[in-house]
Design brief:
Elements lengths: L16 H8 L8 H16 L6 H8 L3 H7 L3 H28 L3 H16 L8 H9 L4 H23 L5 H21 L4 H15 L3
Helix pairs in contact: 1-5, 2-3, 2-5, 5-6, 5-8, 6-8, 6-9, 6-10, 7-8, 8-9, 9-10
């Protein structure tokens, strides 16, 4: 991938973050009650946020008794925390980091490939934004769910820092914070309807890489 002209490297295939996450979430029919509840919650929370989804709807859609629901998840917040944990695995690790590593042969290419993956995701009809950003903004940073979202966003930033260190870039932690700004900003821009947000962010990302070369 041409770092000086990173926008030329944008790819398109079926390996988008949300596509992978949906493929990883099995249908509810053959799941045990806990998995069934979490599968339904994953879909609803991803699309509609936290406050708009009530416990009664979760119970009805999951096809479980109220007592069964509360046996597995004593509160709605405990279910949201389980959702965020699953989202981190399916979205951050399986759909972003793993796919970016597959698309690039060097750490720098893998960093830039994050925005290739974003480009596919942003173009999907069911693009719903980042659950971590959404929950943080919806619940606030002082709420336990907002704090959990901050922690998962920081985890994503540490993945970026790791790639920066592998690439031998200077001031890897500062680099990761700036890179994460581009990631979060592109997600917000795509939510606003900018389908070129990933390309714009990737171009700026190339400049950032050059700035941090030792």
């Amino acid at each position: 991938m041409d770092v000086m002209n990173p926008g030329s490297g944008m790819k398109s295939n079926d390996g988008s973050p949300e596509a992978s996450a949906q493929q990883s979430t099995p249908s509810c029919g053959h799941l045990d009650p806990e998995e069934r509840i979490l599968s339904v919650a994953y879909e609803l929370f991803s699309r509609r946020g936290i406050r708009d989804v009530g416990v009664n709807e979760l119970i009805e859609r999951s096809g479980v008794a109220k007592a069964t629901f509360y046996r597995h998840f004593p509160s709605k917040d405990s279910l949201v925390l389980a959702f965020l944990e699953q989202r981190d695995k399916q979205w951050t690790i399986d759909s972003i980091i793993s796919k970016a590593r597959q698309r690039g042969s060097t750490p720098v290419e893998q960093l830039l490939a994050i925005f290739d993956v974003f480009s596919d995701w942003f173009g999907r009809d069911d693009f719903e934004g980042s659950a971590f950003i959404n929950v943080l903004l919806e619940m606030g940073p002082s709420h336990p769910l907002g704090q959990a979202s901050k922690d998962y966003l920081a985890k994503m930033r540490r993945h970026v820092q790791g790639l920066a260190e592998e690439a031998g870039l200077a001031r890897a932690e500062d680099f990761a914070r700036s890179w994460h700004l581009l990631m979060k900003g592109s997600i917000i821009a795509a939510t606003e309807g900018d389908l070129q947000a990933a390309q714009r962010a990737q171009q700026m990302a190339g400049w950032l890489i050059e700035h941090h070369r030792k």
